[in-house]
Amino acid sequence: MTDTPPSPCPCGGGALAGCCGPLLAGEREAPTAEALMRSRYCAYVRHDADYLLRTWHPASRPDGFEFQDVIQWQGLTIVATESGGPGDTTGQVEFIASYQVEGRFGQLHERSDFRREGGVWYYVDGVEVKGRPVTVVKVGRNDSCPCGSGRKYKRCCGRK
Questions:
Q1: Is residue 160 part of a domain?
Q2: pLDDT, tens digit, 9 for 90 and up, residues 27-53
Q3: Where residue 94 sits, what CATH number does that domain have?
Q4: Is residue 106 included in any domain, yes or no?
Q5: Is the pTM of the predicted complex or chain greater than 0.85?
Q6: Burial letters for 75-98: b for 16+ Cβ neighbours within 10 Å, e otherwise?
Q7: Which residues of the chain are under the pLDDT cut of 70?
Q8: What total of structural domains would you count in the chain?
Q9: Residue 142: domain span
């Protein structure tokens, strides 16, 4: 009998069970704004609208949420954080989320604001970072995968 490897966390922070899994399951709260950002990215990947709405600040939370099924999230890169630590009440996280839509790759570059109330971090809102063009490329089967895995596209995100 072989042990199955732990499921990787979509945010890139290690194994899901030791990273965003407990946050998504409601077993614990995010200790920092960055941890909440990472777990919200995972919720997008996993289509967990309940978690997204639960972690959205009530002042800016939409009434409902629907996913765009054509978007396949490929990876998350944290560019910068400002405040947002365990002792802070506000924080900002700048990130780049890579995605694929109908065989084309792109990136969402956003700066998100977070607020901590009653010991719980919430997403408030975000703005797209200007001055950096969105990258959309067509990838061939034998090209390196744009997700950064180091593998060929056909052996990575291009697998059917």
A1: no
A2: 999 999 999 999 999 999 999 999 999
A3: 3.10.450.50
A4: yes
A5: no
A6: bbebeebeebeeeeeebbbbbbbb
A7: 1-2, 131-141, 144-160
A8: 1
A9: 16-155
Question: What is the DSSP track for the chain?
Answer: --PPPPPBPTTSSSBGGGTTHHHHTTSS--SSHHHHHHHHHHHHHHT-HHHHHHTB-TTT--S-----TTEEEEEEEEEEEEE-STT-SEEEEEEEEEEEETTEEEEEEEEEEEEEETTEEEEEEEEEPTTSPPP-EE--TTSBPTTSSSSBGGGTTT--
Residue 1 falls inside a structural domain: no
Q: Contact, 75 vs 148, CB < 8 A?
A: yes
Residue 135 CB contacts under 8 Å (≥ 6 apart), including other chains? 105, 106, 107
**Nearest-angstrom CA–CA distance, 36 and 19:** 11
**Is residue 10, in this structure, part of any structural domain at all?**
no
For residues 158 and 125, give the distance between their C-alpha atoms in angstroms, rounded to a whole number: 32
Residue 91's contacts (CB-CB under 8 Å, 6 or more residues apart) are: 32, 33, 34, 81, 82, 83, 84, 85, 113, 114, 115, 116, 121
Q: Is residue 39 a contact partner of residue 30, using CB atoms and an 8 Å limit? A: yes
